[in-house]
Amino acid sequence: MKKLTLFSIFCLFALVLNSCKKDELSPPEIQTLTITPVSHNSVTLVGNIITKGKQKIIDYGFIYSTSTSVPDENSGTKVSLGNNPTEGEFSKTLTNITLNSSNSNMIWARAYIADDKGTVFGSAISASLPRPNSSAISPSSGQSGDVVKIAGKFYNPNINAVVVNFQNVKARVISATDTELSVEIPGGINAYHNQQISVTIAIDGAVATNSMYFTILANIKDFSPKTGPVGTLVTLSGDNMPNNSYYSSSIPIYFGNFQANTGNYYSQVLVPFSVGETSDVSVMSNGQRKTLGVFTVAAPQITSVSPEAVLPTQNITISGNNFPTQYDGSANRQMIKIGNGEYQNAGYSSSSVFSYNVPASTPEGEHTIYYRVGPHEVQAPKKLKVLGHQITGFSPSSGGPGKEVNIAGNFIVNTSYYVSFGNVNAYATATSATNLRVIVPTGIDAGKVKLTFDPSNKRILIPGEFDILGPTFTSFTPTSGVAGTLITIKGSAFYQGSGQVIFGTVAVTPISVTENTMIVAVPSNVTPGAMKLSIRTGGQTVIHPNNFTITN
């Protein structure tokens, strides 16, 4: 009995001792209750301490991660709330959360409590952070340096946390509110005038939804050259200049009040011929006119004219500088006149030289050359001497059709003129500056005629008379022969190169014709016998008095 009592007391003591040890090792218990998004980079976490346990608490709070679904001390970010918790619910609002990537908006978190024996975690829970979003950009087009407003939901961000890119080029953010961003369009965008570009927004790394497109316009800042003749090709420079692929609407460029030609636009324009000596160069963009600088029209200058003495219709070469190389149809186009004549269109092939034909109506004498283009009118340094066509004579003084006649006088080399023999015109060519070659035409009766020279409808009577000689038929040999026999015919004033020999009534073309000799073959289609021979040359017919006999 005594032994049983002692055993019972021992067991009761052991039970009490074991119970005390369990109470001393009782761990804390904690729950993760909720995770509530507040903004794109902020959440409110709520946890609950069921019991703190019996050990000394050294830390409690939350651990979160934007990259792993079960965050811990090694893979998450710890947010400590101290070492003096109370049992029950506790909370913490996290701000400035950095997302793992611009395409992910997930966050995982759980509560924790730690004593000197270790750390106890609540379950991990997750939430999707709301993304900032953009709804509109105003205006929807603009150039570098313009300020645009972007509407949307942005959660009152820190301005330094806002990144706005135009086609991957960062823009300067001027202001940021909950519903609006104000940004300056950057320079350096790799796009052309009137091209649509992307606009992206990121706030604290979170990319806004509903990315927008924006039409970039050229920001023309300068031009070159600053001086030159009218018609100068001026190159414009700046941001987002046009090119052939994306250019679809004109950019009005003005020189003073005159709009420049922007056809086939490649960032170049022609200086209008209607401008003044100096003009403000301006561009119209988005309804606003911006002055780029001043263009000065360089005055043309004539330095020489060659030759210095000419005949009417002769070509002269005018040398100088600042001649326009483009044609223009306005009243201010390049014009030239000689003396008191009327202004006529001038050439435009080179900036230093052009050619001009002296008008046929220009009188003899010395004349000033005037050149007018754009806002300027200038004169040649020397007067041009216009000569007359002085005809001094001709030789020979007689001949039949086809005869070459040389006329002495003043002519333009290699130029064609009309020379009239009586009322019959013939083409003449100046073989030199002092000689004109003409062939006596056919269709003229024999006898003396006057010669006239016609340089551009100005008839000049040539001194002396020319004796038109009719053809003569003096002999033929042999006087008989069979078909195919060659006959030599002698005479004068034959029209060289053409004519006919008539055997009775049958006409035959000669084998050769010179001024005084024809060679012809007896035809085979003529009945043998005696017959008259006649020649037809230069429009006239001559019969020989003797007969020719065709034999068998």
TrEMBL record:
Gene3D superfamilies: Immunoglobulins
Matches recorded under InterPro entries: Ig-like_fold, Ig_E-set, IPT_dom
Domain IPT/TIG intervals: 132-215, 219-267, 300-375, 391-454, 471-549
Name under which the protein is recorded: IPT/TIG domain-containing protein
Native source species: Pedobacter xixiisoli
Record lineage: Bacteria, Pseudomonadati, Bacteroidota, Sphingobacteriia, Sphingobacteriales
